[in-house]
Amino acid sequence: MDPQFLGLLVAPPDPAFGLMAAFDADSHPKKVSLIAGAYHDEEGQPHRWLTHLIDLARSLTFGSDITNRLSSNVASLQTVSGTGANHLAAAFLSKQLQPKRVFIPGPTCRPRGNAILRRRYGRTERHHHPQPCAHNPTGMDLTKSQWIEVAELVKEKHLFPVFDSAYQGFATRDVDGDAWAIRYFSERILSDADSKFPGVCVAQSFSNNFGLYGERVGALHLVVPRGLSAEEAKSQLTLMARGEYWNPP
């Protein structure tokens, strides 16, 4: 693993979001938030980062068992759908890992996303995955044995995979089966005794499987190797996201 990834510092808390966190922690029954000008829910609370949405999105991706064991090994945050998650992952990894070579899907349903990657990374090469299921536009999904081979290659070459999870539940009508590859890679990260298996990012979209095209609902999950904490990575991801949007839809 690149030492730059291991040496992340906790970003300073955003003043506004820090105040929001203090408001949430306050148990006073008559507390009133005057922090942000935002839409409010039926109970008068302002809409902002939806913690329960992130918890459910993480559980849907990794399953309850792995989610419980991930604890401090995963950083998750809400994004502007899957495209925003891919963009944020690219921005974070290009800054922290500074990769010399990036493999991008070809053919792909995200030509604009690939254009972003090319501009950010410079040198890119084409490959055929990783979409964990219902590969768009080819429909050619890997078998479990093939994913196991890919995982071995990832470890051998010390690659950092980014899964574009846009169709969980579409391929087999089984949300657990469609997430098998993501969960297998995550298991390898958690069980790797020497921490040589790289981390993994999952860009998650709900546009297709929940029919939320116009709502732009998504999430980004970053799993770090065992023995490391995701706190630093999440603080840096939050800082980067904060510079692009106040809150996702």
UniProtKB/TrEMBL annotation:
<dbReference type="GO" id="GO:0005829">
    <property type="term" value="C:cytosol"/>
</dbReference>
<dbReference type="Pfam" id="PF00155">
    <property type="entry name" value="Aminotran_1_2"/>
</dbReference>
<comment type="subunit">
    <text>Homodimer.</text>
</comment>
<dbReference type="GO" id="GO:0030170">
    <property type="term" value="F:pyridoxal phosphate binding"/>
</dbReference>
<dbReference type="GO" id="GO:0006532">
    <property type="term" value="P:aspartate biosynthetic process"/>
</dbReference>
<keyword id="KW-0663">Pyridoxal phosphate</keyword>
<dbReference type="InterPro" id="IPR015421">
    <property type="entry name" value="PyrdxlP-dep_Trfase_major"/>
</dbReference>
<feature type="domain" description="Aminotransferase class I/classII large">
    <location>
        <begin position="133"/>
        <end position="242"/>
    </location>
</feature>
<keyword id="KW-0808">Transferase</keyword>
<keyword id="KW-0032">Aminotransferase</keyword>
<dbReference type="InterPro" id="IPR015422">
    <property type="entry name" value="PyrdxlP-dep_Trfase_small"/>
</dbReference>
<dbReference type="InterPro" id="IPR000796">
    <property type="entry name" value="Asp_trans"/>
</dbReference>
<dbReference type="InterPro" id="IPR015424">
    <property type="entry name" value="PyrdxlP-dep_Trfase"/>
</dbReference>
<protein>
    <recommendedName>
        <fullName>Aminotransferase class I/classII large domain-containing protein</fullName>
    </recommendedName>
</protein>
<comment type="similarity">
    <text>Belongs to the class-I pyridoxal-phosphate-dependent aminotransferase family.</text>
</comment>
<dbReference type="InterPro" id="IPR004839">
    <property type="entry name" value="Aminotransferase_I/II_large"/>
</dbReference>
<dbReference type="GO" id="GO:0004069">
    <property type="term" value="F:L-aspartate:2-oxoglutarate aminotransferase activity"/>
</dbReference>
